[in-house]
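Here is the promised in-class demo. Please do not try to memorize the tokens; focus on the logic of going from shape to residues.
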């Protein structure tokens, strides 16, 4: 491959904002696909480092102080690589940390340590020693939601893990020479700012939440609360943490005690206005204060003093930023955003924010190199952003096309680019002004996305293709206004387009790889080669009227390949293609002989070479047709010589894990390529270097000159193009037409015009082809306008005739219409289909409703054995309901039988154990109290169960469950008995209603005879009394007219005829006639028709006057009057009898209904008693269920508490063993440390001893040189490099120029060796001391955990004890329900809640109370007797005490006299005089004088010797003063530097110390005040005690004083 050439990355662009960090003081690094980009903030220069293996870069971190950067791969079993900057040398590779991916990395400032957090499935946090490439400690299942890891810069043993909803401080501890990670979760405050006070969470938190709540337990159930969401963290110089939250809170966390302080709450009224709506995105600590980055494009500088917070300065960003970080020199702030922007701010030098990067973010869709000499790269992002890049990768300008883009092509004859969109538009963008590209033209070709855009090499045409079968040819010259020349039809979907220009033939060939119409898959099986001439493309003979290129102008050749292809490239009489099925590249030779357009030629590959390992792949031929580029999903870019395809050059440009390469583009000279990734968001520009480069051919030079001349002609025209605007005249015209079409409706006579206009109206956004078709239609309309006018006139005449006929038909009868039978059948078919559809919908709706009805009826009606009914009184609003009952299941009946059988066996055993005293109680007392103690009236009602337990013996859960079953049976029995009475009364009412109906019918007949019109009271059953009729629908309830089909109508007619026939058969009245003939017509006829009977008046009475009557006539008239009078009397009598019957019937109705109402009222009373009894039984059941549930709850709590106790005991045992192991390790290490300290002291003593052996050199001077140490930078902890740094500094100190004057070099070398040995020993001692401190801290933490576990064990033990104490009373204290009469019990009415003490009542039998009273009386008498005896004894005791006090006073007087004698003192002389005589005294004095003289002589000699020593020391001090003056001069020169250092340290100390010093002083003053107050209180109390004692003493003395003389006399 090296023989062919090479590929080098020129530049790379892209931004994902995964990780942006400083790699040194002026350079930042960030990821870009499979590369790490380095950007110099001062010069803006960019450099690129490719990931080893070409895998995509995952997590990235860097240490700007050491220049180490680390990143992980995105692949299976990824590695972590550490490199040094700027040499880019591999430092280490960490393997085996995870299986899939790393989510976060962090480097420590205190040593070669790196922390990593892996993703699923293990979520492991690992701390590595990257120098040794070994993990220090690992904690699995610890980083499920971790998004960031940050080491404490002053203590690498602390690591903070920031999650999405919480953060944890991890402590690295050394236990038995094994490093482990111990978590300490921080309890975040609530969203209202409240902080939970409680103990910090240890590494093993055994406070698991119990499922049940134990009353009185010290472990309470924790309630969930909404906490703040951390978003940014920052370590302080005191190893504390600033935490910023999404809600705007700013917290300060003490990592030792895990206490959280809320520094700022945005919801308070006095919140700082600038921070009230600030959602914190980033935090960093600057020397001027805490820098806070908010979401609202603001950066604030905060000064924090204790809990006081002030905003000192604020900066405004032009666009939002997401992260903020500080450079290693603590001067520069870097702010980055997700949109590809970076800003730089140096607060100490300037308030100006400088933009250092602005390249946007997101994935690239495609990119292409322009055909100008500057090689400008044009790229498209998926957001629709078009960007221009210079040859060195600088972003020149951008333009947002405000659309989703799919393809891009650059024109070779003018500086513009064509962009395809998903909406089917082709956009032309002028690139002459790189800083401000502009849109100059737009054409709409498809209703779908534009898939391909290709210019031919000499810029004659632009070819486009979409998802349909049309390939459009556009004129590429701006002078032709980018006009659409026409289109060609391709069978199937176009998968690839490629062009070549043959200058000698004046033709352009286009190769289209298509699927073919018969193929349903997406693989290409056909080559379509379109041949177009470069000139004379205008005219009707070239392009048809509808825009299709004519057949004699456009030559089409079709070739079929044996295997499906994905991509192709057209060369000189050959085709290169990629077959994904065989994973190889194929070369096809096109035949030179001419073929017809319809003929399909089968091609076979001339050559096949191995392709990409991961496809499919895309092919692109260089402009000189000498190189073939292929890119695939594997991310590889391969360059082959077309002459020899076996050899190739390859480069890993993009990651195969993110989709590989999406597109590739050649430059005009073929030496530069641009590739875009599918999912890595990177744009890579590479340089191709071919070793064997042929000289440029004359034809190539001619083409170049031609393109340049054409470019100089067309490009000025393009520059003068106006900017494209969407508000074109065509759009407004279409809008007006649409408004006209949406206006008022037209008459029927103009419907054909409306139909025509609708057919001819274009769509809202017509394509070029649709517009062309509309233009053709318009042209045809203009051409045939006269013919159309004639046709319209004839149609109008015909319409008028038809309308005239229609108007005439309106007045004709329907029978005279001659309908169109075919149209009638069509309409009838349509109507029948619509009717069938409507019927099916109605039938489906009816079925759904019927199903719903059936379900409701089955669940709520059929399942109920006794339906819910009611009975309403006749004359009042009294209303009584029954008890709806479901049939008892077999399981319930079986349970009841089982309980009864158990009780049958238990009752004899219990009866034998009854107390004899209880058997002898009076029967009446038992009867009086039995129902009261049962707790309900069911026994009084006669429905009690004889097997029911006594309430006072219910102790076990089984008994209570059995009692519940029996009580449920009692309730069912009560309801059943009441329902029986209810049903009897309901039947009675139905019978009464029947009787009332019969009476009313009789009354109505009588009223009809008496001709009385009066409304009768006729009661009936309401719906609640007759619920069955709710489920049935009466015909009278249906208001709508019933629709009947023909069959149903015929059936209805037959039914009516049958009914009429039956009525006719019954209408002859043969039975009634036979009865009438048999009874001679006198059955009830006489009385019924008596009121209608009238005696006829004689005829002569009507024709003759009275005086003309004869005697016979007078006699007849008299008989007439007698009969009339008798008939009248009979009528009156009959009327009175009927009226009496009406009254009797009404009174009977009233009496029966009133009697029924009384019975109903009695049933109502019984219903109340039954309901009361049922409620009482239900209350007992509720109490029993509650007790059973409590027992179950307590029963379930015990094993859970025991499980927690066992778990805690196991943890305690492990911790105890760990403490012992740590203690043993600590003791061993302490011995090693003591030994090392002793060796260090021995080195010091040996040097002091050897100093005295060296001549001409003062020992003190040598010792000072021995103790001299170089200055080393302060570090928070002793890292592994501390010894090397010290030894390097010692080399500078041991240099010969630092040797004092006059010192022998041998002595100096000896001194340096000893000093280096001493320094190494001291460094080892310091390291051992630090390790010893860490081990002691770890041991202390383990002991604290042990104490915490012990405390938790005690709490659990107490909880178990309290649980057992609660269970025992729960078993004994039974809830008893008692019925008491009013006035029998007196209790406090203040608080009658079940938990109050006053409401706890204990019931005892009367005999027990009597016994208790007798016992009280007997004990009272005994107490009185004992009190009298005590009184006598007390008198004797007082007398004896008095005698004892007198004797004690006598003893005190004797002791006082003895003390006064002992206090007599004598001097020494008096004592000597008592023992010596005068001679002995004189000799003793002479001895003393001689001793004093000898002492004086010795003191004089010592004084003289001391003076001499002082003089020698003065001389030595003078010499030393001279040397000190010389050293002071040197120190005065170093004094300014020391002042600067001291000032820096003072600032640091002042930042951390005031709070501690103030707190210490406050605590000290508080302790003094408390001590003084306590002393004052003690003094006051003692003073009061003394005063009381003195008063008591004086009282006793005065009391006893008169009796003393008497006692003395006695």
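The designed amino acids, position by position:
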């Amino acid at each position: 491959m090296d023989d062919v050439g090479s590929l080098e990355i020129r530049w790379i662009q892209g931004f994902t904002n995964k990780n942006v960090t400083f790699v040194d003081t002026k350079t930042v690094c960030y990821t870009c696909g499979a590369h790490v980009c380095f950007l110099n903030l001062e010069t803006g220069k960019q450099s690129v480092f490719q990931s080893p293996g070409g895998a995509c870069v995952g997590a990235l971190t860097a240490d700007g102080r050491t220049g180490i950067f680390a990143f992980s791969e995105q692949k299976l079993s990824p590695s972590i690589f550490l490199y040094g900057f700027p040499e880019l040398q591999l430092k280490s590779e960490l393997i085996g940390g995870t299986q899939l991916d790393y989510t976060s990395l962090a480097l420590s400032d205190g040593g070669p340590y790196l922390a990593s957090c892996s993703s699923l499935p293990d979520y492991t946090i690992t701390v590595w020693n990257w120098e040794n490439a070994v993990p220090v400690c690992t904690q699995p299942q610890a980083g499920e939601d971790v998004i960031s890891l940050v080491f404490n810069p002053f203590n690498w043993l602390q690591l903070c893990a920031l999650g999405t909803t919480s953060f944890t401080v991890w402590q690295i501890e050394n236990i038995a020479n094994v490093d482990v990670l111990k978590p300490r979760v921080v309890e975040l405050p609530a969203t209202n700012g409240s902080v939970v006070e409680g103990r910090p969470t240890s590494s093993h938190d055994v406070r698991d939440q119990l499922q049940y709540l134990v009353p009185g337990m010290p472990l309470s159930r924790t309630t969930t609360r909404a906490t703040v969401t951390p978003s940014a963290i920052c370590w302080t110089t005191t190893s504390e943490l600033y935490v910023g939250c999404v809600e705007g809170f700013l917290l300060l966390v003490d990592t030792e005690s895990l206490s959280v302080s809320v520094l700022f709450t945005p919801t308070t009224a006095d919140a700082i206005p600038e921070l009230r709506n600030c959602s914190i995105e980033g935090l960093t600590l600057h020397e001027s204060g805490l820098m806070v980055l908010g979401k609202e494009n603001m950066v604030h500088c905060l000064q924090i003093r204790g809990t006081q917070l002030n905003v000192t300065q604020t900066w405004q960003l032009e666009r939002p930023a997401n992260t903020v970080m500080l450079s290693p020199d603590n001067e520069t702030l870097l702010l980055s955003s997700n949109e590809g922007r970076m800003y730089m701010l140096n607060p100490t030098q300037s308030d100006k924010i400088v933009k250092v990067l602005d390249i946007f973010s997101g994935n690239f869709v495609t990119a292409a190199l322009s055909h100008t000499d500057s090689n400008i790269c044009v790229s498209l992002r998926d957001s629709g952003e078009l960007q221009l890049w210079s040859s060195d990768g600088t972003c020149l300008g951008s333009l947002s096309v405000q659309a989703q883009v799919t393809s891009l092509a650059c024109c070779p004859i003018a500086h513009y680019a064509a962009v395809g969109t998903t909406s089917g538009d082709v956009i032309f963008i002028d690139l002459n002004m790189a800083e401000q590209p502009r849109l100059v033209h737009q054409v709409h070709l498809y209703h779908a996305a534009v898939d391909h855009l290709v210019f031919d090499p000499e810029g004659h045409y632009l070819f486009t293709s979409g998802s349909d079968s049309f390939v459009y040819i556009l004129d590429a010259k701006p002078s032709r206004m980018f006009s659409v020349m026409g289109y060609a039809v391709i069978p199937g979907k176009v998968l690839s387009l490629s062009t070549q220009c043959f200058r000698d033939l004046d033709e352009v060939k286009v190769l289209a790889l298509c699927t073919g119409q018969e193929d349903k898959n997406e693989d290409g099986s056909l080559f379509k080669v379109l041949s177009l001439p470069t000139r004379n493309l205008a005219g009707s003979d070239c392009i048809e009227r509808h825009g299709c290129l004519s057949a004699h102008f456009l030559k089409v050749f079709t070739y079929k390949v044996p295997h499906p292809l994905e991509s192709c490239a057209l060369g000189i009489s050959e085709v290169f293609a990629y077959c994904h099925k065989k994973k190889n590249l194929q070369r096809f030779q096109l035949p030179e002989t001419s073929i017809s357009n319809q003929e399909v030629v089968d091609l076979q590959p001339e050559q096949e070479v191995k392709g990409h390992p991961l496809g499919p792949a895309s092919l692109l031929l260089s402009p000189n047709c000498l190189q073939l580029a292929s890119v695939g999903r594997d991310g590889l870019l391969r360059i082959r010589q077309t002459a020899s395809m076996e050899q190739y050059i390859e480069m890993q440009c993009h990651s195969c894990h993110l989709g590989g390469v999406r597109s590739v583009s050649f430059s005009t000279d073929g030496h530069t390529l641009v590739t875009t990734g599918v999912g890595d968001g990177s744009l890579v520009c590479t340089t191709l270097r071919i070793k064997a480069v042929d000289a440029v051919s004359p034809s190539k030079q001619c083409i170049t000159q031609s393109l340049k001349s054409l470019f100089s002609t067309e490009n000025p025209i393009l520059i003068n193009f106006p900017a494209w605007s969407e508000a074109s005249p065509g759009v407004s015209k279409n809008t007006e037409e649409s408004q006209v079409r949406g206006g008022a409706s037209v008459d029927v006579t103009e419907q054909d015009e409306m139909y025509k206009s609708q057919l001819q109206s274009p769509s809202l956004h017509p394509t070029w082809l649709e517009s062309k078709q509309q233009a053709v239609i318009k042209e045809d309309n203009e051409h045939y306008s006269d013919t159309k006018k004639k046709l319209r006139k004839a149609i109008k005449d015909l319409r008028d005739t038809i309308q005239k006929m229609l108007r005439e038909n309106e007045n004709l009868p329907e029978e005279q219409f001659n309908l169109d039978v075919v149209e009638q059948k069509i309409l009838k078919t349509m109507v029948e289909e619509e009717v069938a559809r409507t019927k099916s919908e109605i039938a489906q709706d009816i079925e759904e409703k019927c199903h719903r009805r059936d379900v409701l009826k089955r669940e709520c009606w059929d399942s109920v054995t006794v339906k819910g009914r009611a009975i309403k009184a006749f004359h009042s609003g009294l209303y009584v309901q029954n008890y709806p009952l479901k049939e008892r299941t077999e399981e319930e009946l079986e349970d009841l039988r089982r309980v009864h059988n158990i009780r049958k066996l238990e009752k004899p055993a219990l009866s034998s154990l009854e107390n004899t005293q209880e058997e002898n109680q009076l029967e009446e007392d038992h009867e009086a109290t039995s129902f009261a103690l049962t707790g309900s009236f069911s026994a009084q009602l006669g429905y009690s169960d004889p097997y029911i337990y006594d309430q006072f013996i219910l102790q076990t859960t089984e008994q209570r469950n059995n009692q519940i079953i029996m009580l449920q049976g009692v309730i069912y029995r009560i309801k059943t008995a009441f329902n029986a009475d209810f049903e009897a009364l309901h039947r009675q009412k139905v019978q009464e209603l029947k009787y009332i109906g019969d009476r009313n019918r009789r009354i109505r007949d009588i009223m009809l005879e008496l001709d009385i019109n009066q409304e009768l009271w006729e009661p009936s059953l309401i719906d609640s009394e007759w619920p069955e009729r709710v489920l049935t629908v009466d015909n009278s309830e249906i208001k709508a007219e019933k629709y009947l089909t023909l069959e149903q109508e015929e059936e209805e007619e037959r039914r009516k005829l049958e009914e009429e026939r039956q009525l006719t058969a019954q209408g002859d009245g043969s039975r009634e006639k036979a009865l009438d003939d048999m009874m001679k017509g006198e059955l009830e006829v006489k009385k019924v028709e008596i009121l209608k009977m009238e005696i006829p008046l004689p005829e002569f009475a009507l024709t003759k006057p009275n005086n003309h009557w004869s005697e016979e006539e007078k006699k007849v008239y008299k008989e007439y009057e007698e009969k009339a009078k008798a008939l009248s009397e009979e009528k009156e009598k009959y009327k009175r009898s009927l009226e009496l019957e009406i009254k009797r019937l009404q009174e009977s109705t009233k009496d029966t209904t009133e009697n029924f109402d009384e019975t109903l009222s009695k049933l109502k009373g019984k219903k109340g008693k039954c309901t009361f009894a049922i409620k009482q039984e239900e209350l007992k059941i509720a109490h029993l269920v509650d007790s059973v549930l409590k027992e179950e709850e307590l029963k379930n709590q015990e094993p859970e508490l025991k499980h927690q106790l066992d778990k805690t005991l196991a943890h305690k045992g492990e911790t105890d063993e760990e403490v012992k192991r740590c203690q043993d390790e600590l003791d061993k290490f302490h011995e090693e440390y003591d030994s090392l300290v002793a060796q260090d002291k021995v080195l010091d003593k040996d040097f002091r001893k050897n100093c005295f052996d060296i001549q001409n050199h003062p020992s003190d001077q040598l010792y000072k040189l021995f103790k001299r140490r170089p200055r080393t930078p302060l570090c928070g902890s002793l890292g592994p490099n501390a010894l090397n740094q010290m030894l390097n500094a010692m080399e500078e100190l041991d240099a010969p120029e630092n040797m004092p004057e006059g010192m022998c070099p041998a002595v100096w070398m000896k001194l340096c060796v000893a000093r280096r040995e001493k320094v190494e020993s001291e460094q080892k001692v310091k390291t051992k001391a630090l390790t010893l401190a860490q081990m002691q801290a770890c041991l202390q933490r383990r002991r604290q955990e042990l104490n915490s576990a012990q405390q938790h064990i005690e709490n659990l033990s107490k909880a178990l004890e309290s649980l057992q104490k609660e269970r025992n009373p729960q078993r004994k204290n039974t809830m008893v329900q008692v019925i008491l009469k009013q006035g029998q019990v007196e209790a406090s009415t203040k608080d009658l809640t079940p938990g109050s003490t006053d409401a706890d009542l204990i019931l005892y039998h009367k005999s027990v109370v009597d016994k208790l009273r007798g016992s009280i009386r007997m004990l009272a008498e005994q107490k009185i007797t004992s009190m009298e005896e005590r009184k006598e004894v007390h008198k004797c005791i007082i007398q004896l005490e008095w005698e004892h006090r007198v004797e004690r006073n006598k003893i005190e007087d004797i002791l006082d006299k003895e003390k006064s004698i002992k206090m007599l003192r004598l001097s020494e002389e008096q004592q000597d005089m008592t023992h010596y005589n005068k001679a002995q005294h004189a000799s003793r004095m002479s001895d003393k004088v001689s001793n004093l003289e000898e002492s004086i002589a010795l003191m004089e000699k010592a004084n003289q010797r001391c003076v001499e020593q002082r003089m020698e020391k003065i001389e030595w001090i003078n010499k030393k003063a001279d040397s000190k003056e010389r050293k002071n001069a040197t120190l005065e020169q170093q004094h300014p530097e020391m002042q600067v250092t001291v000032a820096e340290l003072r600032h640091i100390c002042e930042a951390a110390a005031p709070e501690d010093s103030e707190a210490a002083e406050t605590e000290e003053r508080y302790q003094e005040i408390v001590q003084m107050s306590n002393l004052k209180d003690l003094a006051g109390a003692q003073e009061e005690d003394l005063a009381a004692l003195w008063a008591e003493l004086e009282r006793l003395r005065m009391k006893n004083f008169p009796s003393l003389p008497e006692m003395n006399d006695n």
